[in-house]
C-alpha cells in the first residue's frame, strides 16, 4: 500500500515538472514568434529609433549643449517643452501591444512641433525621427488637437470689465486709438485641394484655401479665432457667418467700444473701416491713417504666427480636418508662448514707430511672405449711426486726438 502511494506521488511530481517544462516551452515559442513578427513589422532603420533617431541624438544634444538652437528647432525652450508635454502627455500616450511598442508622447510632440515650425514634410520627418510616415500622418492631428485642448483658454474674449480695460488702454497708449478693443482680420490658409472638391476651396488668388478669421488684442494675442471657412466664401460671409459676428451684434463690446478692420469688413456701429475711394478730404485721409496704425496689431500678429510656424508658408498637404487642427494648435501656441516667453515677440520683430511717427517695419516682414487677406465682403447699405460713429473718430483725430506727425504721413 505504501509503495503504491509513493508511486502515485512520484507520478504527480513528474507530471507537474513536465507541465512546467511544456508551459515554458510554449511561452518561449510565443515570445519568439512575437519577436519575429515585430522584426517583420518594423523596418530596421525605424527599429533603431531609440539609438539613432533625431530625438535621441540631435535634439537631446541641443537641449543640453545649445538651448538657443533647441528653441529655434522647437519654437520654445526646453522648459516650455517639458511644461507643454506634462499638459498633454496623458491624452496622447498609448499603451504597448504584443505587436509593437507605443510611440512615446515626447517624440510625438517633438514631431508635431517640428512640422509646425518648419516646411519639413512627412517623408523628411519620417527619416529624421525614424517613425513611419503613416504613423506621422495619424499623430500630427492627434497632438495638434491635444495642444489646442490644453491651451485654448489662452484664446479668450474678455468677460470682465477690467479685462476689456487692459485692451483699451493698450490701443490708446500704443496707437492713440481710444475705446478700441481689438483689430479684426481674415487670412487665407493655403492648402492642397482635397480630392473631388472642385472649386469649393478655390479663392480669388487662384489657390485653394481655408480661412482664418481672428480678433487680435493690443498685445498681439488672438482674442478669437474662427477656422474652416472655405476659400471661395471670402466674397461675402466669412465674418457674417461667424460666432463673433453674432456676439458683436448682441452687444459684446463695452459701451461705445469699437474694433477696427480693413475694407474687407462692413462698417458697423462697433466696427470701423477706412473711408473708401481716392478723392478724400484731409480729415478722411488722416482718419484712414490712424485706423491703419491700429490695424497693424493684427497684421503683425499674423506675421509673427507665420514666421514662428513656417508650416503656413506653403500649401498644407493634409486633410482639411487636419488643417483646422494645425491652425488651432498654432494660434493657441502663439498666445501661450507670448505670455510664457519674453523672447517669443521682441521689439524688433514687430512694426514700431520712431519719434516722428515713421514706421520701422518688423523683421518678420523680410522673413516671410504674408498670408493673403480675405477679399472685400459683400457691400451693403451702412447705417447712418455707423457712418456717424466713423465721422466722430474723424473729427476727434483732427482735434483733441491729433498726433503731431499725422499730416506728414498722408502726403
Automatic annotation (TrEMBL):
Keywords per UniProt: Hydrolase, Metal-binding, Nuclease, Nucleus
Signal peptide: none
Domain DDE Tnp4 intervals: 184-335
Database matches in InterPro entries: HARBI1-like, HARBI1_dom
Molecular functions (GO terms): hydrolase activity; metal ion binding; nuclease activity
Subcellular localization(s) per the UniProt record: Nucleus
Domain of life, source organism: Eukaryota
CC cofactor: a divalent metal cation
PANTHER family linked: NUCLEASE HARBI1-LIKE PROTEIN (PTHR22930:SF269), PTHR22930
Assigned protein family: Belongs to the HARBI1 family.
Protein name (record): DDE Tnp4 domain-containing protein
Amino acid at each position: 500500500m505504501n509503495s503504491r502511494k509513493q508511486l502515485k506521488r512520484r507520478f504527480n511530481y513528474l507530471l507537474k515538472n513536465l507541465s512546467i517544462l511544456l508551459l515554458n516551452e510554449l511561452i518561449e515559442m510565443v515570445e519568439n514568434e512575437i519577436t519575429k513578427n515585430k522584426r517583420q513589422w518594423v523596418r530596421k532603420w525605424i527599429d533603431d529609433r531609440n539609438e539613432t533617431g533625431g530625438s535621441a541624438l540631435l535634439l537631446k544634444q541641443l537641449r543640453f549643449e545649445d538651448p538657443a538652437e533647441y528653441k529655434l528647432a522647437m519654437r520654445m525652450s526646453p522648459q516650455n517643452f517639458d511644461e507643454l508635454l506634462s499638459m498633454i502627455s496623458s491624452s496622447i500616450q498609448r499603451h504597448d501591444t504584443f505587436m509593437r511598442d507605443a510611440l512615446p508622447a515626447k517624440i510625438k510632440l517633438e514631431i508635431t512641433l517640428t512640422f509646425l515650425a518648419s516646411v519639413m514634410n512627412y517623408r523628411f520627418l519620417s527619416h529624421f525621427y525614424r517613425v513611419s510616415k503613416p504613423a506621422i500622418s495619424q499623430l500630427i492631428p492627434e497632438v495638434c488637437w491635444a495642444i489646442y485642448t490644453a491651451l485654448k483658454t489662452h484664446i479668450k474674449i474678455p468677460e470682465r470689465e477690467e479685462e476689456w480695460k487692459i485692451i483699451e488702454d493698450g490701443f490708446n497708449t500704443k496707437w492713440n486709438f481710444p475705446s478700441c478693443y481689438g483689430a479684426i482680420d481674415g487670412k487665407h490658409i493655403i492648402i492642397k485641394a482635397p480630392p473631388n472638391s472642385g472649386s469649393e476651396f478655390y479663392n480669388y488668388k487662384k489657390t485653394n484655401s481655408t480661412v482664418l478669421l481672428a480678433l487680435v488684442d493690443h498685445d498681439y494675442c488672438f482674442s478669437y479665432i474662427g477656422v474652416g471657412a472655405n476659400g471661395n466664401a471670402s466674397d461675402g460671409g466669412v465674418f457674417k457667418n461667424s460666432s463673433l459676428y453674432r456676439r458683436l451684434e448682441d452687444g459684446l463690446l463695452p459701451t461705445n467700444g469699437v474694433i477696427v478692420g480693413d475694407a474687407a469688413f462692413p462698417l458697423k456701429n462697433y466696427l470701423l473701416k477706412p473711408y473708401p475711394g481716392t478723392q478724400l478730404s484731409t480729415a478722411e485721409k488722416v482718419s484712414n491713417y490712424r485706423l491703419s496704425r491700429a490695424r497693424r496689431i493684427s497684421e503683425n500678429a499674423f506675421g509673427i504666427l507665420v514666421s514662428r510656424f513656417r508650416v503656413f508658408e506653403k500649401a498644407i498637404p493634409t486633410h482639411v480636418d487636419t488643417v483646422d487642427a494645425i491652425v488651432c494648435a498654432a494660434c493657441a501656441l502663439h498666445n501661450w508662448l507670448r505670455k510664457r516667453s519674453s523672447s517669443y515677440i521682441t521689439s524688433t520683430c514687430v512694426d514700431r514707430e520712431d519719434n516722428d511717427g515713421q514706421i520701422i517695419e518688423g523683421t518678420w516682414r523680410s522673413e516671410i511672405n504674408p498670408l493673403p487677406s480675405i477679399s472685400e465682403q459683400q457691400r451693403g447699405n451702412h447705417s447712418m449711426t455707423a457712418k456717424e460713429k466713423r465721422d466722430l473718430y474723424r473729427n476727434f483725430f483732427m482735434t483733441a486726438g491729433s498726433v503731431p506727425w499725422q499730416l506728414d504721413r498722408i502726403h
